[in-house]
Design goal:
Number of strands: 8
Shape: globular
Distance between the termini: 48 Å
Order of helices and strands: HHHHHHEHEEEEHEEEHHHHHH
CATH superfamily of the largest domain: Butyryl-CoA Dehydrogenase, subunit A, domain 3
Radius of gyration: 20 Å
């Protein structure tokens, strides 16, 4: 598909590969590694900026679980690129990610939330790295990925560490590292776990970057845009499903117009406006899923069906990647005049 745009390549794969297999993938409980390889082989890793956002949107329209695993690569590549500017050790790993020879995930909660650290780092006795303790409540792609970029706090300093998960992907165990699979209501095939670290030893050679907690916390809102494309993809799915039924063509057109407006708002939003724009995208996904269920009728409550899965995934997006400002905006829309 070399002559197609990134969005067109992503849509073709979503419609021809991801969507037809989504029920089987969900039943199996794991996104196939072959899905990730196929997306990389199509050159989708090379997409940047608006193209990368369009790719996530199209993949989510086909299969949110695969898109959810795929979007993790964006953050890893960004941090490896920043670290590589100072340390060329990461050039090969970054090349492998971009070429699809490797797949990685992120576990950044320690850097992006206020209050106590999720994971605490203390220097090793031998001086070669750190010992990590704590728990990360949300790590996606466990057993599917080759590595995970994890943050840990040493006082007010945040360490970005790339953990090698090759042993885990091969079915083995790593001392001091344990993933507890979460029984999610949707995107269960993403293999999302709560990650427990108990005296886990990591070498100094795994350090990608470091920064101050307050600085990273202040810049958190600027990174909220990519996750908004997951919600846009769910709306896109509903638009196409409604449009396929002539009885709902007008509703599909109205929803498509609102989708365009919400996308434009997300694209134009600065850091201060992004939480409200993200909330608008999630709110639209929730309403679009409800509309699809109503248009589908009683079969929407029978699993597996497109409407049933879409409603579950809209519920997932209501709480996934949320921040207090996003949550309050959503609650304000659902319960106007009520305390958030």
């Amino acid at each position: 598909m070399p002559d197609l745009t990134a969005r067109e390549r992503a849509r073709a794969l979503a419609e021809e590969l991801l969507a037809p297999q989504v029920a089987a993938v969900e039943a199996a409980g794991a996104v196939p590694r072959s899905h990730l390889d196929a997306l990389a082989a199509a050159g989708l890793r090379a997409a940047e900026g608006d193209d990368a956002l369009a790719v996530v949107e199209e993949l989510a329209a086909g299969d949110l679980a695969t898109a959810f695993v795929w979007i993790q690569q964006v953050g890893v590549a960004r941090w490896l690129g920043a670290g590589g500017a100072q340390d060329r050790r990461w050039a090969a790993q970054l090349d492998d990610l971009r070429a699809g020879r490797a797949h990685a995930g992120i576990a950044l909660q320690a850097a992006l939330r206020p209050g106590p650290a999720a994971v605490v780092a203390r220097p090793r006795d031998d001086g070669d790295g750190w010992v990590l303790d704590g728990a990360v409540p949300w790590v996606t792609g466990w057993g599917l990925l080759d590595a995970v970029l994890l943050t840990a706090r040493d006082g007010e300093e945040v360490l970005f560490l790339l953990l090698d998960l090759a042993v885990v992907r091969a079915g083995g165990e790593v001392p001091g590292l344990r993933g507890e699979l979460l029984p999610l209501a949707a995107v269960r095939a993403s293999r999302t776990v709560e990650l427990h670290l108990d005296g886990f030893r990591v070498g100094a050679d795994r350090l990608v970057a470091r920064g101050q907690h307050a600085t990273l916390l202040a810049g958190d809102a600027a990174g909220l845009r990519p996750n908004g494309s997951l919600a846009l993809g769910l709306v896109q799915r509903c638009v196409r499903a409604l449009h396929a039924d002539p009885r709902h063509a007008d509703r599909a057109a109205a929803l498509a117009a609102e989708l365009g407006s919400v996308r434009a708002r997300l694209d134009a939003a600065g850091p201060e406006d992004l939480p409200a724009a993200r909330a608008a995208a999630v709110d639209l996904a929730w309403r679009a899923a409800a509309a699809l269920a109503l248009a589908t009728g009683s079969s929407a409550v029978i699993a597996p069906s497109l409407a049933e899965r879409t409603v579950r995934e809209a519920l997932f997006l209501l709480v996934f990647g949320s921040r207090p400002a996003i949550r309050e905006a959503l609650l304000g829309g659902l319960l106007p005049g009520q305390p958030a």
